[in-house]
Give the backbone structure.
Amino acid sequence: LSWSYPDVQGTPQVLRPGRTGAVEVSEVSDFMDALLESRLGYDRSAVEALRTGLGRVVPLELLKLWTWQELQRAICGEPRLDVTALKAHTVYTNCQDGDALASMFWTTLEGFTEAEKERFLRFVWGRTRLPLDKNWEQKFQLAAVAADDERLPTSHTCFFQLDLPRYSAQPILAERLRFAMDSCITIDSDGQPR
């Protein structure tokens, strides 16, 4: 072991100023402490910058009132897509709630795994979580388009809209929607949205 040891990015760093060369047996405990401190503190300045920025928006004393899970939920939204909430915030075009296409769509979405629901939301909105508010700024738009079992659904992420062909059966809708969501994972080729 050497007192010059690679940091988390692979760049050699001196773990203890003034110490160079090989670590002696009598120095192993000090070396381990220095290495642990190096690993645990390598991003201290970045974390402090994040903390300072967050403190400009929210008084840091108030953050102590929340668990990290509560804070994450408040900032990022619910981790699971609530189909009932999405349905309550849906506007229909060329169809309505309860007609055959809408019923097939909601049945399909309710049958999705949590991972598929997340991919669906990313496909139609470029996000992976729904808003927490009761009054959404933008409602989900479900638009029926011409009947065509070969056509794929299309989305307009800026408008939170899904153009859904009038499929002849729910299994076809489910298969085409899964294919579209799994095949289109970027927005304008600028990388995977989060």
Summary: The first strand starts at residue 4 and ends at 6. The chain is about 45% helix and 10% strand. The beta strands are 4-6, 12-14, 90-93, 140-145, 154-156, 161-165. The chain has a mean pLDDT of 90.
